[in-house]
Amino acid sequence: MNSDADDDSASTADQETTVHPIDWSRRDPISSAVVDAVVSKTGTDAVSLPPLEEVLDGDALNRLFTRETDTELSFEYAGLAVVVSTIDGVTVS
Question: Structural domain tally of the chain?
Fold first, then answer.
């Protein structure tokens, strides 16, 4: 078994982009969708992540993103690039 090949596949997996659609039928705030997407990408639990409020105002994020808007916002959270889009959902890379 070649450990270099294993390292390459692990680093490729870390670099992959994960997209989570926003389920507008649910009443969960967008800030929860962001945390859920990062949890899914990292394989960690939400309590292990830094508070989202250390990066941005979660309430403002929730007000900004509604079903009726066409909005996109990019930021870094927990060492990952996050893009929230009303059209594409939450993308984490």
Answer: 1
